[in-house]
Design a protein that fits this description.
By secondary structure, the protein is α+β, with helices and mostly antiparallel strands. It is 38% helix and 21% strand. 11% of the residues are buried.
Length: 141
């Protein structure tokens, strides 16, 4: 658990490793029924990472992340489980978020022409026929 390794995927460098020194973790626990803090359940882990101060990203990767996300990336794991398991879950969520931000943007579809109703098509065809007749009449004259 020394470093966060981002799983390889499309558009990602293989095994991007973020050192622990770049991660900020905050832990908190909800009080138990008697008011005491319970170690094994209901712990909250907040994990944040600021790509702007990171040394592991190339300039293009940093630009791609900053174009999609402003400031630090923050994830929270708050489940009914131990602090250790929530810590692992928060790291997995951060890895998924980084993968989403580094992935290439989806291809854009060209806008399609609005479909026109049959009445409009008939009128267009009628206009074209009349224009063709006029042109033929001028040519014969």
């Amino acid at each position: 658990m020394k470093d966060l390794r981002v799983p390889p995927g499309p558009g990602l460098p293989d095994g991007l490793v973020i050192p622990d020194t770049e991660l900020v973790e905050r832990f908190s626990r909800s009080p138990g029924p008697g008011g005491q803090s319970v170690n094994t359940t209901d712990s909250r882990v907040e994990l944040s990472w600021d790509p702007a101060v990171s040394d592991v990203l190339s300039e293009s990767q940093l630009a791609r992340i900053q174009s999609r996300s402003t400031g630090a990336i923050q994830v929270v794991s708050h489940e009914q489980r131990s602090q250790h398991r929530n810590r692992i879950a928060a790291r997995e969520r951060l890895a998924l978020r980084i993968r989403e931000l580094l992935a290439p943007p989806p291809p854009t579809r060209r806008p399609t022409k609005p479909t026109r109703g049959s009445k409009e098509r008939r009128l267009d065809a009628k206009r074209q026929r009349s224009q063709t007749k006029q042109l033929r009449g001028r040519i014969q004259d």
